[in-house]
Specification:
Helix content is about 30%, strand content about 20%. By secondary structure, it is α+β, with helices and mostly antiparallel strands. The chain has 4 domains: about 50 residues; about 150 residues, Penicillin-binding protein 2a (Domain 2) (Alpha-Beta Complex); about 350 residues, DD-peptidase/beta-lactamase superfamily (Beta-lactamase, 3-Layer(aba) Sandwich), CATH 3.40.710.10; about 110 residues, Trypsin Inhibitor V, Chain A (2-Layer Sandwich), CATH 3.30.10.20. Strands 4, 5, 6, 7, 12, 20 and 21 form a 7-stranded mixed β-sheet that branches. A 5-stranded antiparallel β-sheet has the order 14-13-25-24-23, with helices on both faces. Strands 3-10-11 form a 3-stranded antiparallel β-sheet. The longest helix is centred in the first third of the chain and has 30 residues.
């Protein structure tokens, strides 16, 4: 008979307890296996959420182009540097995957990124002491270029890694920066992630079109959060943003930037604002301001405004265009009538209106002569005695001076029409008291180019789907009012032309060499915050609005220079330099037929029999005809040229010839950006340029072979201002 003893009982109890525990554990596992839950937590879902990670795939932001297809805002890949410090990351690896030698790593990295070795070492050491898995290197380790990335990888440093991301890039630096705008990284409150957002200019105006829709990728990760090898991926491709094409023409914009920089550097004005427009369509071909800024760095931004659309000011005598137009349209203007110039007031209770020559005037003169002299008295009398304040206010509203132009740029502001009291009504007639923006004045002046009809200005020509290449939006000319008749527009053009051609005209400096032009100068006082107006020649805003050619205007330009440092110069020397430089070059670039010349007839030369002809013979013939010729390559025959065969050119024009041999890099020192752009078009290579003016440096050596991978980088500088033509000693200077 089996006899129990103490040891057997204890053994039985222990075995039973462990068996019960084991059965409970097995049962629990079976339950979990069957139900997949622990305390109402779905383990499969929990594991998936831990092991799987969703990463956002950035959509590529749409690019911004000028109307010729040159990239004004594009994208480039940049890299962020980080270091893994956790030794566990190297577990079971055949080589070290974390940083081992902190000092050596710091010494090596300091030769590539903009941070000294001590700073790098401190970051690594601090991360190590605080058991951080990885560390980054602030600004110095972000936005690294491809060249820096390649150099870091060549160092083969354990634990050093790079991630890539897209970054907005503006290849032309300050070029039209206040039109193009820029992007900034901002926190998305819904996702908690930073995203690139357009906040200024076209970037801000069309941010939704440019941004696109981000995609995503899902994959399995290890305990450190890194993707497993051969892990399956679930990818939802991003939808890239749409491309925006502007009406800006890069060559005309370059002419404008160069001229403005020259004046800015020599005369240090408080500001310059200028724009070029096709007055028949409303397309803005160029627009710029000084001070400007580099949207790549956004450093030291002195002026956040696009002054052409955002800074109303008292425009001065450019407003006389619209007073004159209203009077002619109403039939109350008789240019042959005379009046006493110099001083005028409506009665003894009101202040005296004075002409700009200290109220001396020019005696008894006709109203047409008053227009040529830009007489304030003439326009005060036209407003008060002929037209009437109420009637003129109707015309101001018809010219839309009481509203925004609606230009497709963020930040447009409307000036203030101060027109309650008699003196406000009178001074508004010649551009004082009331304030307007340059774009308001330009929009109103388009009526002169379109037989009395105004057009709406715009800067965006189309929006394109980058994949299908289909236009999602195309701008059209929009007529927005008809304040005057075609006959009035013609009479005003004739009178404004006389301000340029007449000996008494205030705009004589604005004559173009090969084209007829008309326009109006403006010299506006600047308000003193303490009351009244500043005094002195350095305290004015000097401006001009003009068009050319006169009978069929192709271009309109407005330019204003505020408070320049003048010594012996007149303010109109600065504005006329910008106007003449930009208009002459732009009209020739657009191949507009000249309708006049100053001293001698300038005839175009037909460019015939070039392609397939002997290089030596073609060069000799063109140089004999007065051309400046550059040959690209060493071949014996000519393959291509700019201008093209069959077109025409002016004497002294720069002709580029490409031979049938290997294309080689010419010496481009002292070339204009216009010439550089022609060269790039001829040989089809990439271009980046820095600065404005004339070429001082080039990265490709003279004679180097030009291939499809060639990338030309040039530096330009502008360090002089053309001297104005000397006047005859006995010719009286007339200055508003």
């Amino acid at each position: 008979m089996f006899k129990l003893n103490y040891k057997n009982v204890m053994s039985f109890l222990v075995i039973s307890i462990f068996t019960l525990i084991f059965l409970l554990i097995i049962g629990r596992f079976m339950y979990i296996q069957f139900h997949g839950e622990v305390q109402a937590v779905d383990l499969v879902d929990y594991a998936d959420r831990f092991r799987y990670v969703n990463s956002e795939l950035d959509a590529e932001r749409g690019e911004i182009y000028d109307q010729t297809g040159m990239v004004l805002a594009g994208n480039k890949t940049v890299y962020t540097l980080y270091a893994i410090l956790d030794e566990g990351y190297s577990k079971n690896a055949s080589e070290s995957l974390h940083v081992e030698n902190l000092q050596e790593t710091a010494n090596q990295l300091s030769s590539v990124i903009n941070m000294d070795s001590d700073q790098i070492y401190n970051i690594l050491e601090n991360g190590k002491e605080n058991d951080r898995f990885q560390v980054e290197f602030s600004h110095a380790g972000s936005a690294l270029s491809t060249e820096q990335k390649d150099e870091i990888e060549s160092l083969d440093l354990p634990g050093i890694y790079l991630t890539e991301r897209p970054q907005r890039y503006y290849p032309n630096d300050k070029f039209a920066s206040q039109v193009i705008g820029f992007t900034e990284m901002k926190l998305n409150e819904e996702t908690g992630e930073e995203e690139e957002v357009g906040t200024y200019g076209v970037e801000g105006m069309y941010d939704e079109d440019l941004r696109g829709v981000n995609g995503s990728v899902s994959y399995k990760r290890d305990k450190y959060g890194y993707k497993l090898l051969n892990a399956e991926e679930l990818i939802q491709s991003p939808e890239d943003g749409n491309d925006v094409y502007l009406t800006i023409d890069q060559k005309i914009q370059t002419f404008l930037e160069d001229a403005m920089t020259t004046v800015d550097e020599q005369y240090n004005p408080e500001s310059i604002m200028a724009a070029v427009m096709d007055p028949k369509t409303g397309e803005v071909l160029a627009m710029s301001n000084r001070p400007s800024f580099d949207p790549n760095t956004k450093e030291n931004i002195e002026n956040w405004y696009n002054d052409v659309i955002s800074s109303p000011f008292e425009p001065g005598s450019t407003m006389k265009i619209f007073t004159l137009s209203a009077a002619i349209e109403e039939g109350v203007y008789n240019g042959s009538d005379t009046y006493k110039s110099g001083r005028y007031r409506i009665n003894e209770n009101f202040r005296v209106i004075r002409d700009h020559n200290n109220g001396e005037g020019w005696g008894e003169i006709t109203y047409n002569e008053g227009v040529q002299h830009s007489s304030n008295v003439a326009f005060a009398k036209i407003l008060w005695e002929q037209l009437g304040p109420d009637q003129y206010k109707d015309y101001l509203e018809s010219f839309h001076f009481n509203r925004a132009t609606g230009i497709d740029l963020n930040g447009e502001k409307v000036g203030q029409l101060s027109y309650t009291y008699p003196m406000e009504q009178i001074t508004t007639s010649f551009g004082q008291g009331s304030t307007f923006t340059p774009i308001q004045i330009m929009k109103a002046a388009t009526a002169l180019a379109n037989e009395g009809k105004m057009v709406k200005p715009y800067v965006t020509s189309k929006i394109m789907d980058p994949k299908s290449k289909k236009a999602l939006y195309e701008a059209e000319t929009e007529y927005v009012g008809e304040p005057i008749s075609a006959d009035t527009a013609q009479q005003v053009k004739d009178l404004l032309e006389s301000t340029v051609t007449s000996e008494e005209g205030t705009a004589r400096r604005f004559q173009l060499e090969n084209f007829s032009t008309f326009g109006k100068t403006g010299t506006a006082e600047t308000p003193d915050p303490s009351g009244g107006y500043h005094s002195g020649r350095d305290s004015y805003v000097y401006s001009f609005i003009g068009m050319a050619p006169k009978e069929d205007p192709e271009l309109m330009m407005y330019v204003a220079v505020e408070k320049p440092d003048l010594e012996g110069e007149y303010g109109s020397e600065l504005t006329s330099y910008i106007y003449k430089t930009v208009m002459e070059n732009s009209l020739h670039y657009l191949e507009i037929e000249p309708d006049q010349s100053t001293d001698q007839t300038v005839e175009k030369i037909d460019l015939n029999s070039i392609y397939g002809q002997s290089t030596h013979e073609v060069v000799s013939r063109l140089e004999e005809q007065g051309m400046t010729v550059t040959v690209v390559g060493e071949g014996e025959e000519i393959d291509e040229s700019i201008p093209k065969e069959g077109s025409s050119a002016y004497p002294n024009q720069h002709i580029l010839l490409k031979t049938n041999g290997t294309a080689t890099m010419p010496d481009v020192t002292d070339w204009t950006l216009r010439d550089i752009l022609s060269l790039v078009e001829l040989v089809d290579m990439e271009l980046d340029f820095i600065g404005e003016g004339f070429v001082t440096k080039q990265n490709l050596s003279v004679g180097a072979e030009i291939t499809e991978d060639s990338h030309l980088i040039v530096e330009l500088s502008s360090d002089y201002l053309e001297e104005p033509a000397e006047e005859q000693q006995d010719q009286k200077e007339t200055e508003e």
